[in-house]
Design a protein that fits this description.
The complex is a heterodimer of chains A (170) and B (385).
Chain A (H helix, E strand, L loop, with lengths): L27 H14 L3 E4 L6 E2 L5 E2 L4 E2 L2 E4 L3 E10 L16 E8 L6 E6 L11 E6 L10 E7 L1 H10 L1
Parallel strand pairs in A: 8-10
Antiparallel strand pairs in A: 1-2, 1-5, 3-4, 6-7, 6-9, 7-8, 9-10
Chain B lengths: L4 E8 L11 H16 L8 E5 L2 H4 L4 H5 L10 E4 L5 H14 L5 E9 L5 H5 L13 H17 L3 H15 L14 H6 L2 E3 L2 E2 L8 E10 L10 E9 L11 H4 L1 H14 L4 H4 L2 E3 L5 H10 L8 H7 L22 H17 L12 E8 L3 E8 L4
Classes of the chains: A alpha+beta (170), B alpha/beta (385).
The complex binds zinc ion.
Zinc ion (ZN) binds next to loops of chain A.
Chain lengths: 170, 385
């Protein structure tokens, strides 16, 4: 008998894959130190390259650009600058609650004071339309701190006038 | 380079949203059969095989085990290359190097992806669980953040980006293998499609496709058998640092693509890319990034990419047609996407591109883009090096 499928309008069959797996991965020496410091000091640390002076968040043992070891942790500011922003209208699951995040929400590319790298994270703001590149934000931590990346809940948008005030104080 | 090598055959499936009628191996077989037919070879003639696939998307390990034989891999050297979006271009480079080294005369490269299978959750394990995963917003949000920066700095308008998508979908309508294509698409339709993440509309984005693509690479005397071989001239690959945030000006600087293009241009003697290159197939997953790639590839001065798309010079019939096949914006089976870029350039040099053939195409550029900012650049020409 021919193996050619005779009935071309057949219903094609599928095989189910069920994956419900979880496991732990080792995060290494630098990130272990980073998260212990976060929990103990409520401070984010970057690593500074002695060769190119670049400060990396998250910290890492080697500067990829220079291929030299970094051995200096530097504390970063709790405030930062929005260098890219978007208003998202698509559904994503909130990693803290496991439930879909309410749309629209604002994402920012945030450069913390003292860091050369950026992180993308949620921006907490009453009106998404207010957020502009160059605006300032402040890190909002989970209380109590647990010593993992979930400790950063979001970044609170600071109205430009309020930010000026803090600058005057400092 | 050790010895001249050329692409002498290509084959692709019809890329689509879901190929329910075939499994991954059967889909691979379709592309391989088409490429062998195009090169007038049989599978016994092939000396080595390179597979490219991002198995995490389908959540299935070791695709080389159960798809290798659908590429004719029994008792032959088979290897798999997986480097994110650049998988296909990286696999092509590996195959070209294998032939150029003289190790093998005929190498088959086949890439595929079946996005209709699998779960985005398996793809999530691509990121670092200690840092990136909790804040990963997916490709669209990440692109939107970099695009906001690029668009503001360069003054790119949504209309200019939409022109890229219009060009792509109109070209796609000419390509029988393309997943998407719309000869009637307009800027208004792109801008009226749902907003995903400002400024990216649904129709600014590439689709997720099921599809496969294959190349037959040949070195040595056998190449003389072919009328218009697509000669390989040079390639360069650049990887970058691991976190999305490591690039504070990703699209503005795009250091991997600039550096890889500079190396390739130097190797093949390109000093004026826009005027010396006849056709390009570049990896543009979002309309806006095609404009950023124009700058990084030296097709225009910084800040002039919006003007370049408006000029129509990158359309078919223009001075430098970019993605006459419809590009990634029309077909995106990730593991195959880079192979498709190379195959489409080979088709142009073989003079087999049909309705989207670029007249007089002789000097041709390919790029691949993967993960957060990895780049491959390849150059082909109608002249033997
Ligand atoms: Zn350094």
């Amino acid at each position: 008998m021919s193996m050619k499928m005779q009935n071309t309008d057949t219903e094609y069959l599928t095989a189910e894959i069920i994956m419900d797996l979880s496991w732990d991965v080792d995060i290494g020496q630098t990130m272990t130190d980073f998260f212990h410091r976060l929990k103990d000091e409520k401070c984010l640390y970057g690593s500074r390259c002695g060769s190119c002076d670049r400060v990396y968040l998250p910290p890492r043992p080697i500067c990829g650009d220079c291929w030299v070891e970094m051995d200096e942790f530097v504390p970063l500011g709790l405030q930062g600058t929005i260098i890219g922003k978007t208003i998202c209208y698509y559904k994503i699951l909130d990693s803290l609650t496991g439930k879909p995040r309410k749309t629209p929400f604002v994402l920012g590319l945030i450069q913390l004071d003292g860091a050369d790298t950026t992180l993308n994270h949620f921006v907490d703001v009453d009106d998404p339309a207010k957020v502009a590149i160059g605006d300032r934000v402040e890190t909002i931590f989970r209380e109590p701190l647990q010593g993992n990346v979930g400790d950063i809940i979001h970044f609170k948008w600071l109205p430009p006038s309020e930010e000026k005030g803090t600058e005057d104080v400092s | 380079m050790a010895r001249p090598v050329a692409i002498v055959g290509t084959g692709q499936t019809r890329h689509s949203k879901a190929r329910l009628d075939v499994h991954q191996g059967e889909m691979v077989r379709e592309a391989v059969d088409a490429a062998l037919l195009d090169a007038d070879l049989s599978f016994q003639d092939i000396d080595a095989i390179v597979l490219t696939n991002m198995e995490l998307f389908e959540g299935r390990a070791l695709p080389e085990l159960w798809c290798g034989e659908f590429a004719g891999g029994f008792a032959k050297p088979v290897m798999k290359v997986a480097t994110g979006g650049t998988s296909g271009t990286s696999g092509a480079i590996v195959g070209l190097m294998q032939a150029a080294s003289g190790l093998f005369d005929k190498v088959l490269v086949v890439g595929w992806e079946k996005h209709s299978e699998g779960s985005t959750q398996t793809g999530m394990s691509l990121t670092d669980p200690a840092w990136d995963r909790h804040i990963a917003s997916g490709a669209i949000g990440n692109f939107a953040l970099s695009i906001s920066q690029f668009a503001e700095a360069r003054g790119i308008t949504p209309e200019q980006a939409a022109l890229v998508a219009v060009k792509a979908r109109r070209n796609g309508a000419l390509n029988p293998n393309a997943h998407l294509g719309d000869a009637e698409i307009t800027v208004e339709k792109i801008l009226a499609s749902p907003m995903l993440a400002e400024p990216i509309h649904l129709l600014d984005m590439c689709p997720q496709s099921d599809g496969a693509a294959a190349l037959v690479i040949a070195g040595g005397d056998i190449v003389n058998r072919y009328k218009n071989p697509a000669w390989f001239r040079a390639s360069a690959t650049r990887h970058d640092q691991p976190y999305i945030g490591d690039h504070d000006q990703r699209l503005l600087k795009m250091r991997t693509l600039r550096s890889a293009a500079a190396e390739v241009y130097r190797k093949v003697g390109i000093t004026d890319p826009f005027n010396q290159i006849d056709v390009a197939e570049i990896y543009e997953p979002v309309s806006y990034v095609e404009l950023a790639w124009y700058e990084a590839l030296g097709f225009c001065e910084e800040g002039q990419s919006g003007r370049l798309i408006e000029s129509g010079k990158t359309q078919i019939g223009g001075e430098l047609p970019v993605n006459p096949s419809g590009g990634v914006l029309c077909s995106n089976p990730v593991g195959a996407t880079g192979v498709i870029r190379v195959a489409e350039i080979a088709k142009q040099l073989h003079k087999k591109a049909g309705a989207y053939q670029v007249d007089g195409a002789a000097q041709a550029l390919v790029t691949g883009y993967g993960v957060y900012a990895w780049s491959d650049v390849l150059f082909f020409s109608g002249d033997k090096p």
